[in-house]
YkgJ family cysteine cluster protein (Shewanella corallii), 84 residues
Amino acid sequence: MQCRLGCGACCIAPSISSPIPGMPQGKPAGERCIQLSAENLCMIFGRSDRPLVCSEFDATPDVCGKTNQEALWLITSLEQATGQ
């Protein structure tokens, strides 16, 4: 599965504990990454300063669903089930 351009759910729903350019402490769950554009595109995609957790994320149907809204719901649910 390929990421749906303009989805951005993986840049909003999960917490990210790794430093992100512009967010040195990472980001809490439910907060938009500062590197997510208005069009929901990663502005640091492919750059060396992109967090490893982001670079290693693979879109899969069970995580991303069939729509952007479903992806946001699924990833938020996973975060809530596994978050601390």
